[in-house]
Amino acid sequence: MNTTFPRLLQEHARQRPADAALREKEYGIWQTLNWADLYAMVGQIAHGLARDGLQRGEHVVIVGANRPRLSAGILAVQTLGGIAVPLYQDAAATEYVFPINNADVRFAVVENQEQVDKLQEIKADCPTLSRIYYDDPRGLRNYPSQGLCSLDALLQDGTALAAKNPQFVEQQIQAGQPDDVAAMFFTSGTTGNAKGVVHTHRSLLDRAKAGADFDKLTSHEEVLAYLPPAWIGQNIFSYAQWLCCGYVVNCPESTETVTIDLKEIGPTYYFAPPRVFEGLLTQVMIRMEDASAPKRSMFKFFMDVARDVGPRRMDGEPIGLWNSMMYGLGNLLVYGPLRNNLGFSRVRVAYTAGEAISPDLFSFYRSIGINLKQLYGSTETAVFVCLQPDNQAYADTVGVPCDGVEIKVADNGEILVKSAGLLKGYYKNPEATAEVLSADGWYKTNDAGFIDSRGHLKIIDRVKDVGRIQGGVNDGAMFAPKYVENKLKFFPFIKEAVAYGDGRDKVCVMLNIDFDAVGNWAERRNLPYAGYTDLAQKPEVYQLILECVEKVNADLSADTLLAGSQISRFLVLHKELDADDGELTRTNKVRRGYIAEKYAVLVQALYEGLAQQYIETAVKFEDGRSGSVSATLKLSDAKVFSAVERAA
Asked: Which of 207, 241, 271 is the last residue of a domain?
């Protein structure tokens, strides 16, 4: 698109000033901000930032949850030709040091006291950081005022400045160009320091429009913005496409109220990673276990109908009169109330991405009438590379290339992408840029995959992670750790998995149980436990997890390419993997190499065939305190299958 974010805001404000642009739930009541008021607010913030010295091309850090005034802050920064740099609001203070120093940041716009405290804590390590603007004033009344300013005060000053120079904002908007840098998103940094991915107005809006056109999005959509704004997926769905289409973005009151807010809003356009869909389904199944016998029987009967009929119906295939009648009755008694309870009664398009989704989970949502689809993309591609058409949603693919995208597969199986949505480069990192962007404009995704006979892209694993088994009966067999991990996480009882096997004679994994799902399973069997560590090491839980592992092995044995990736041994960790402990990224991706070093004694015990191993691990609590957790872990063998056994 040959425009910029501030110009789109200006168009909406002129063409439909009274229409809702943003909603925020405050004290249980939804507050609406229309396009005209949003435009005025952006202008006021822009005046204040310009007075304080924000220069064109300068970076401004944005930290917080989705809030209307933070979105207005981003628009104000871009109005002045600045570059928005959203950071994860739940990150530790020390994680902000590198991006702030890397981008020479002087200004920060944050949500509340928590974020102010973090930035104040690292101020000595960030000499350029001089101004912090905050949205929520609670708890900040008696803070030192040097360099600290409320958005209320900034808006008040901006109003006075706007009265003196009413043409200023218009002039600034017109000075901005589509190829100006609009935002920078830092990667998750799984193997070192995060890299700043530089995107222009053109690259972000090109992909936003491609996605909007693909699914025929209009200004009538309702979206719930509940994921971190620092993640480019949330930024595309609740910022770029919002301004591209002009629909309404709703900001929940807090993370604790998201489920309630989802039901109240009833979004028409929805995105969530697989773990969110898994969590919602787990809650449903837990409630059904506690329901009366007649209700459980009715649920089981109509879900059997849905599994048989629903996906075909969703794909537009004929299902016959009898099936239509039975599905209609099921919709009245089960599927409709279930969609309403989940908050999906109005969803027209729902997407998932980031990790592989279980075929059963994917089929469940489509079978009850939710148009759940998969997409493929990354921070570097401004998200939209492949999308699934409404009548071609498959659990094992990520869709077809969308408008403006070219895809080819390199000799080593790596997926290469070319589109107008590619990153401009990595900030201050030409070497890394040269590694991923070829001279003729192809982006190297580092994902291994292929285009299947239907024209859909299928992803196997990260190219750098695909390895080989060395030694043993499977010597030379391909090992795809992420593929194995995802198959394990398809089970509701397994939350995280870390697989090892490259260069070794067998595959071993370390697992996290899903505390809620396994806890409910244990309670229904009158199995007492005292917290996560105790529950994780119960013999009954190990037997439950063993059954899941061996089902994965049975599936893998049927795949001639990956049969050698079957799991020989496993253990259940004594603590949940945590981003605060460095084991996960802020986007909940496993840092496999770091975990291998941290738990080297466990990896060694798995490969040496030990039956148990003591470990003590340092942990960081939510209140900032440090401590440790220890346990003697059981290590278990799992059955591996031959092709003959699988067939039997």
From this structure: 271
Residue 101: burial class (beta carbons within 10 Å; 0-12, 13-18, 19+): middle
With 0-12 / 13-18 / 19 or more C-beta atoms within 10 angstroms meaning exposed / middle / buried, residue 609 is: exposed
Q: Which amino acid is at 272?
A: A
Report which DSSP code applies to 71.
Answer: H
The first and second tokens of residue 600, run together, are: 């080297």
Across the beta sheet with 20-26, what order do the strands follow? Answer: 29-34, 20-26, 248-251, 222-224
Helices (H), 445-489: 481-489
In one letter, which amino acid is 295?
K
Residue 292 included in any domain: no
Q: What value does the mean pLDDT take over residues 71-80? A: 98
Q: Which of 562, 570, 589 is nearest to 496 (CA)?
A: 589
pLDDT tops 70 at residue 190: no
Q: What is the mean pLDDT of residues 61-90?
A: 97
Strand residue runs (E) in 20-89: 20-26, 29-34, 59-63, 83-87
Query: If we measure between CA atoms, which residue out of 284, 353, 320 comes closest to residue 492?
Result: 284
Q: Which DSSP string corresponds to 43-85?
A: HHHHHHHHHTT--TT-EEEEESSS-HHHHHHHHHHHHTT-EEE
What is the residue type of 208? A
Confirm whether 29 is domain-assigned. Answer: yes
Residue labelled with tokens 């109220």: 257
d(CA 249, CA 236): 12
The domain boundary, picked from 238, 271, 304, lies at: 271
**C-alpha span between 273 and 275 (Å, rounded):** 6
Q: What is the CATH number of the domain that holds 587?
A: 3.30.300.30
Provide the token pair at 344.
Answer: 């999906």
The pair phi, psi for residue 417, each rounded to 5°, is -130, 140
Residue 497, beta-bridge partner list? 511
- Which DSSP category does 348 fall into? S
Cα 289 from Cα 557, distance rounded (Å): 33
Q: Answer yes or no: is 412 within a domain.
A: no
Residue 514: φ, ψ to 5° = -85, 110
Q: Give the three-class secondary structure for 330.
A: helix
**DSSP-derived 3-state class of residue 418:** strand
Contacts of residue 257, Cβ cutoff 8 Å, sequence gap at least 6 = 25
- Per the structure, the complete domain to which residue 65 belongs is given by 5-271
What HEC string does 555-571 produce? HHHCCCCCHHHCEEEEE
| Residue 44, helix vs strand vs coil | helix
Q: What is the spatial distance between Cα 609 and Cα 570, in angstroms, rounded to a whole number?
A: 10
Give the strands of the sheet with 406-409, arranged side by side.
Answer: 406-409, 414-418, 443-451, 457-462
pLDDT band at 167 (very low <50, low <70, confident <90, very high): very high
Is the distance from CB of 618 to CB of 599 less than 8 angstroms? no
**Chain-centroid distance, C-alpha 319:** 35
How many structural domains comprise the chain? 2
> How is residue 233 annotated by DSSP?
H
As a whole number of angstroms, the distance between CA 423 and CA 532 comes to: 42
pLDDT in tens, 123-146: 999 999 999 999 999 999 888 778
Q: How many residues are given for the chain?
A: 648
Is 213 within the bounds of a domain?
A: yes
Phi–psi pair at 458, nearest 5 degrees: -120, 125
Nearest alpha carbon to residue 378 among 325, 328, 438, 445: 445
Whether 563 contacts 477, CB under 8 Å:
yes
pTM value is: 0.82
Cα 587 from Cα 89, distance rounded (Å): 12
